[in-house]
C-alpha cells in the first residue's frame, strides 16, 4: 500500500457517482498534489473496514467530503479514526458542514472544517498543518478565487471512471435565483468558468472515450450564448460521427427558452439530450412564499414545446410539502405536468437543507422536519403526518411504475383523466396489499397492477393484455426505481 500524506475521501451514494468535489481539491493541491490521493467509498460499508483501508495509507491528514447522504456514516468513521489513530488530522468540507457548523457532532469530532469553496483554502490549510504555523482556528471560511484561477479537474477522471461512472462536469458554479428550499439560493450569482478552457477539457474527455456528460450547472440556459457553444460542441461530435452517440444532461430553468436555443435543441437526435427541469410548484402563492421566480405560462409552453418538438428526454421536478401548498394544490400541479407530457416526473418531498432560508417558514406554517438526514418534512399546517406518508409512498410507487418506463402503456390507462387522484388510490391500495414500498419483484408488481385495473372495472383479459404489452420479457429483473445519475435534485445541488 502506497503511503500518502494527504487522503481525500468521501462516501458516494453509489459507485457510479464519481466525486467531482474531491477531484477539484486534488487538481488544486499545487506542490502538495504528489503527496495527495483520492479514496472514494460507497455508503453502506462497515465503518471499521473503511477506517482500516484509510489507515493502510498511513496518512497525516484525511479530508472528508461531507454531504447529506453520507454525514451519518462519515460521523462514525471520524469518531472511530479519532479513537484508533488520534494523530491523524481530520479536515471536513462539503455543504453539509458549511452551514450550522458549530452544532454538528461530526464537527466536534474533527480537527478542522473548511466551509464553502475548498479549492484554495484546503491546500493552504494542509500546508499549515504539515509545515506550520499550526492553524489557530478550527473553522476556515473557504476563499472564492477568480474562476480562471481554479484548475479544472477533468484530467483526473481515470479511464475506469470514464468507462463505468457518471462524469459530472460544470461550466459554471452558483445560481442567481433565490428559491428558499435550495442551497444554491445562498450563492450571490452564477460564476462561469472560462469557456474555451472548459471546452478543451471536454474535448479531452471525449477523446478518451467519454460519451455521457452530466452538467451540474444549476441553470444551464442562463447565458444563452454559452449554452449554444456547449451545445455546438456536442452537435459537432454527433454530426462528425452519427454512429458514435454522445449524451449530455443539463438542468434548465423552465421559463427561459429563446428561439436560438430551441433551434439548436431541435437538431439533436433522439435521446442525445436529457433535460432536468425544476418546476417545484405551479402554485403562484407558494412560489412567492419561497421566493421562486417563475413564469408558469411560459414554463408550461416550453415544456410542451420540448415534449412535442424536440427529441430530448425530459425529467421534471415537483416538490411536495412546500409552505402554503396543500394536497389539492400539489395535485393540480402534478396533473398539469402529466398532461404536458414529460417523460419523467420526479416527485420529491421537501427537505430542510442546512443553511437554507426556508427555515423562516417553520413557525408560521408549522413545518415539522425529520431531525436526521435527509431532514425531510414530516408535516405542515396543511399536510398532516399520515398524509405526508401517503405522499412518500406515492413518490416511491410512481418511480417503480411510471418513471421506470416499465409500464408505459398501463400507466396511461391507470392515470386516466385525474392522474394524481387515480395514482393516489392505486398507491394506497398497493400499500395495503403489500405493506412494502421496496423490493417488490417485477412479476408481482405486474400482477398487482393488473389486479388493480380489474378492480377499477377492466376485464381480466384486457387488463392482462395491457400489462403484458409493457412488461413481456422483463420478468427476471427486480423492480427498481429508474436509474438516476445522482441523488434527488434538491440534495444533488450540494454535490459539486
Ligand atoms: S432551485 Fe434552481 S433556480 Fe432555484 S436557487 Fe436552486 S438552483 Fe437556483
UniProtKB/TrEMBL annotation:
Annotated ranges, domain B12-binding: 3-136
Domain Radical SAM core, residue spans: 161-395
Alphabetized PROSITE patterns for the sequence: B12_BINDING (PS51332), RADICAL_SAM (PS51918)
The keyword Iron belongs to this UniProt entry's keyword annotation: yes
GO molecular function: catalytic activity; cobalamin binding; iron-sulfur cluster binding; metal ion binding
Cofactor or coenzyme needed: [4Fe-4S] cluster
CC per GO annotation: cytosol
Pfam families in alphabetical order: B12-binding (PF02310), DUF4080 (PF13311), Radical_SAM (PF04055)
Record key words, sorted: Iron, Iron-sulfur, Metal-binding, S-adenosyl-L-methionine
PANTHER family on file: ANAEROBIC MAGNESIUM-PROTOPORPHYRIN IX MONOMETHYL ESTER CYCLASE-RELATED, SLR0320 PROTEIN
Official protein name in the record: Radical SAM superfamily enzyme YgiQ, UPF0313 family
Organism: Massilia yuzhufengensis
Amino acid at each position: 500500500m502506497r503511503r500518502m500524506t494527504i487522503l481525500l475521501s468521501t462516501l458516494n451514494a453509489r459507485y457510479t457517482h464519481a466525486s467531482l468535489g474531491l477531484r477539484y481539491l486534488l487538481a488544486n493541491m499545487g506542490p502538495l498534489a504528489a503527496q495527495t490521493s483520492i479514496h472514494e467509498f460507497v455508503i453502506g460499508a462497515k465503518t471499521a473496514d473503511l477506517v482500516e483501508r484509510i489507515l493502510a495509507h498511513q496518512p497525516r491528514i484525511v479530508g472528508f467530503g461531507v454531504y447529506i447522504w453520507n454525514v451519518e456514516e462519515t460521523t462514525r468513521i471520524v469518531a472511530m479514526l479519532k479513537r484508533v489513530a488520534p494523530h491523524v488530522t481530520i479536515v471536513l468540507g462539503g455543504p453539509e458542514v458549511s452551514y450550522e457548523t458549530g452544532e454538528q457532532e461530526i464537527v466536534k469530532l474533527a480537527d478542522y472544517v473548511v466551509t464553502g469553496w475548498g479549492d484554495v483554502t484546503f491546500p493552504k490549510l494542509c500546508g499549515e498543518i504539515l509545515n506550520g504555523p499550526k492553524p489557530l482556528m478550527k473553522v476556515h471560511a473557504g476563499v472564492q478565487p477568480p474562476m480562471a484561477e481554479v484548475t479544472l479537474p477533468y484530467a483526473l477522471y481515470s479511464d475506469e471512471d470514464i468507462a463505468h461512472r457518471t462524469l459530472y462536469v460544470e461550466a459554471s458554479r452558483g445560481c442567481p435565483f433565490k428559491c428558499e428550499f435550495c442551497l444554491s439560493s445562498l450563492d450571490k450569482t452564477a460564476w462561469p468558468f472560462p469557456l474555451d478552457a472548459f471546452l478543451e477539457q471536454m474535448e479531452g474527455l471525449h477523446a478518451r472515450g467519454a460519451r455521457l456528460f452530466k452538467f451540474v450547472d444549476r441553470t444551464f440556459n442562463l447565458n444563452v450564448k454559452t449554452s449554444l457553444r456547449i451545445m455546438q460542441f456536442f452537435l459537432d461530435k454527433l454530426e462528425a460521427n452519427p454512429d458514435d452517440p454522445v449524451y449530455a444532461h443539463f438542468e434548465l430553468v423552465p421559463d427561459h427558452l429563446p428561439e436560438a436555443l430551441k433551434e439548436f435543441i431541435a437538431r439533436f437526435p433522439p435521446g442525445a439530450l436529457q433535460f432536468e427541469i425544476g418546476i417545484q410548484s405551479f402554485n403562484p402563492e407558494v412560489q412567492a412564499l419561497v421566493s421562486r421566480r417563475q413564469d408558469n405560462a411560459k414554463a408550461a409552453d416550453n415544456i410542451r414545446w420540448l415534449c412535442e418538438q424536440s427529441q430530448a428526454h425530459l425529467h421534471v421536478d415537483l416538490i411536495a410539502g412546500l409552505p402554503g401548498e396543500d394536497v389539492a394544490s400539489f395535485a393540480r400541479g402534478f396533473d398539469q405536468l402529466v398532461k404536458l407530457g414529460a417523460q419523467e416526473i420526479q416527485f420529491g418531498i421537501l427537505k430542510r437543507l442546512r443553511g437554507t432560508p426556508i427555515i423562516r417558514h417553520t413557525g408560521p406554517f408549522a413545518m415539522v422536519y425529520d431531525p436526521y438526514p435527509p431532514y425531510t418534512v414530516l408535516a405542515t399546517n396543511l399536510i398532516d403526518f399520515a398524509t405526508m406518508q401517503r405522499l412518500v409512498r406515492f413518490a416511491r410507487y410512481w418511480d417503480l411504475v411510471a418513471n421506470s418506463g416499465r409500464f408505459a402503456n398501463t400507466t396511461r390507462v391507470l392515470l386516466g383523466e385525474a392522474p394524481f387522484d387515480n395514482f393516489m388510490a392505486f398507491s394506497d391500495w398497493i400499500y395495503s396489499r403489500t405493506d412494502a414500498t421496496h423490493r417488490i419483484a417485477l412479476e408481482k408488481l405486474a400482477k398487482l397492477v393488473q389486479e388493480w385495473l380489474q378492480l377499477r372495472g377492466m376485464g381480466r383479459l384486457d387488463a392482462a393484455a395491457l400489462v403484458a404489452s409493457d412488461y413481456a420479457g422483463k420478468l427476471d429483473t427486480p423492480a427498481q426505481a429508474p436509474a438516476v445519475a445522482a441523488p434527488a435534485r434538491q440534495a444533488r445541488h450540494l454535490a459539486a
